[in-house]
Amino acid sequence: MLNHLQDTVTLHNGVAMPGFGLGVFKVEEGPTVVQAVKAAIANGYRSIDTAAIYGNEQTVGQGIQEALAENHLTREDIFVTSKVWNADLGYEATLAAYETSLQKLGLDYLDLYLIHWPVQGKYKDAWRALETLYEAGKVKAIGVSNFQIHHLQDVIADAKIKPMVNQVELHPRLTQKELLNFTREQGIQLEAWSPLMQGELLGNEVLSEIGAKYGKSVAQVILRWDVQHGIVTIPKSIKEHRIIENASIFDFELSPEDMERIDALNENRRVGPDPDNFDF
């Protein structure tokens, strides 16, 4: 169980990954993302998650460099994730995409590199490329994103190295119980994107009621629920007060009954694309 913002989970290769981080999906390249990254790191966050397709790697990198200098931290103190986009899912193309991401971020290595989506017929070649990068010591950990159980089984069948992380849409309306159980059995760390369902859950009555009981916001209740399930989470925000609020979840614990009430909100409902049926 995570008890502090900087607590880590240990991936199956021994790498320590912060259990909580900042996501920057849909934050445009520019000063906004620089400020968000700097605010997060200044307030104790140690994990930043981006992707090639977000188009903001350059200013995410700038934010990281400025934050390291201002907070007297080293590169090793920060855990940085990026993802290879669908158009680059070939062996050589993925290797090249990794170098492009590094260059944009201004970094010598990534802590975690993920295949963004399971494009049929392409993700296995991309996975071989990730294994190559990992074996060459260019990246500390490798994984996937938006993979269902059958995608994971398909990769594992031929892989030399099992994915260390699977980052998926996960929130109280999409609890992903079967996937969570499968990844636990396999030693793969599950990570939640869109943990707040892009804001759709913030007015939920059950969550509001639970929040009132603990003196916490709905967002804090949901993020705490993730933590107690052992799920790494990366809520996105660009406002400093929200970045601080999102991380203020280590001073309370949801009861088993309240955890079950939140679990029961599941409707298998997505706000993002279906990993079995997307066309990009």
From TrEMBL:
User: InterPro entries from the entry?
Assistant: AKR (IPR020471), AKR5G (IPR044500), Aldo/ket_reductase_CS (IPR018170), NAD(P)_OxRdtase_dom_sf (IPR036812), NADP_OxRdtase_dom (IPR023210)
Q: Which residues form the NADP-dependent oxidoreductase domain?
A: 31-267
CDD domains in UniProt = AKR_AKR5G1-3
Stretches assigned to coiled coil = none
Q: Which residues bind substrate?
A: 116
MF (Gene Ontology): oxidoreductase activity, acting on the CH-OH group of donors, NAD or NADP as acceptor
Q: Where is this site: Lowers pKa of active site Tyr?
A: 83
Q: Give the active-site positions.
A: 54 (proton donor)
The source's superkingdom equals Bacteria
Q: Which UniProt keywords apply?
A: NADP, Oxidoreductase
Q: Which family does it belong to?
A: Belongs to the aldo/keto reductase family.
The record's PANTHER family line, in alphabetical order, gives: 2,5-DIKETO-D-GLUCONIC ACID REDUCTASE, NADP-DEPENDENT OXIDOREDUCTASE DOMAIN-CONTAINING PROTEIN
Under which name does UniProt file this protein?
Aldo/keto reductase
To which species is this protein native? Paenibacillus paeoniae
Q: Source organism lineage?
A: Bacteria, Bacillati, Bacillota, Bacilli, Bacillales
